Amino acid sequence: MTAKTPEDVLSTIRRGNRFLLTSHANPDGDAIGSELGLARIIRAQGKSAVIWNRDPTPGLYTPLPGSDRIHVGSEPPAGFPDLFDGVIVLECPSPDRTGLEEFLDQLPIINIDHHLGNQHYGQVNWIDSAAPAVGEMVYRLAQGLNFSLDDQTATCLFLTLVTDTGGFRFSNATDAAFESAAQLVREGARPEQVSQWLYESRSLASIRLLAEMLSTLTLHHDGRIASVYITQEMFDRAGATESDSEGLTDYPRSIDGVQAAILLRERAPSLYKASLRSRGEVDVQKVARRHDGGGHRNAAGCEIEGDLDSTLATIVEGLVEVLDEN
Ligand SMILES: [Mn+2]
């Protein structure tokens, strides 16, 4: 187990009674699982916790206990800000990433995160870039409060480890990640339930969309770049929406020899969302940033205006430059 929870985080939570919890826009498994887990821990102390996210919970995570109680949208929840003692911002490197930044400075901020570039924007900041998931930090926080988890809380936090480590496959699947996972299972987390939610609950539309997408597979640059795309017509044929296309970029990236992969999704006529994935040192964020996008080294995205062919050509060209740097 890595470093303990700082005393100022514990004392702030011990002192307060009513907390607002939030995370980044377009929340992922670590965001949702950390929020739901921490809300349960806070409520179990006889305090209140309200989760407020700008964007809806992705379908994958709606089976998590308490997800139906999350307040979603740009309008503050009832009683904001007077009925809250502070806002706990989880897994969010900067306030603007919440999409709710205009509201946040009305409350003291407790910032709990594991992103390397976190801007320390809270009155209390706990940043641990070695943590495999923010949910693992929430688990340490529970231990610092001498709180023993119930099955559902343990399951929420276990899910954050599974999603942030890619099912314990990424480089952040550290000994600490496995140790926390083992402890969470001991405290009642159910790995088979989490696997069912994450890997065995695909919509039929998403599988039909996968078939459509794979028929567009093209290799570029001696097989080092793979591209696929989904047009609006393909979404329609599959009966799918954009949320059915989550995770599809993993398929082109999984091809042997491919170092960078592109998924273009048509959002509107002549407007494409590009999702870029890579392996190892190949920094796809550099390409996304040229088009006002962003992300991480191995996962980034941006929006581009233009027709399909020219958009694809522009992205491939950018990726070739990045590959040739390495
Ligand atoms: Mn995370």
Give a written overview of the molecule.
By secondary structure, this protein is an alpha/beta fold. It has 2 domains: 7-199, inorganic pyrophosphatase (n-terminal core) (Alpha-Beta Complex), CATH 3.90.1640; 204-325, Diaminopimelate Epimerase, Chain A, domain 1 (Roll), CATH 3.10.310.30. The chain has helices at residues 7-15, 29-44, 101-104, 134-144, 151-164, 175-186, 191-199, 204-214, 232-238, 250-253, 285-290, 308-325, and strands at 18-22, 48-53, 71-72, 86-90, 109-113, 124-127, 218-220, 225-230, 260-268, 271-278, 294-295, 299-305. It has a 6-stranded parallel sheet with strand order 3-2-1-4-5-6, covered by helices on one side. Strands 7-8-9-10-12-11 form a 6-stranded mixed sheet, with helices on both faces. Helix 8 crosses helix 9. The relative contact order is 0.10. Bound molecules: manganese (II) ion. Residues 30, 91, 114, 133-134, 164 line the site of manganese (II) ion. The site of manganese (II) ion (MN) has 6 residues, from loops.
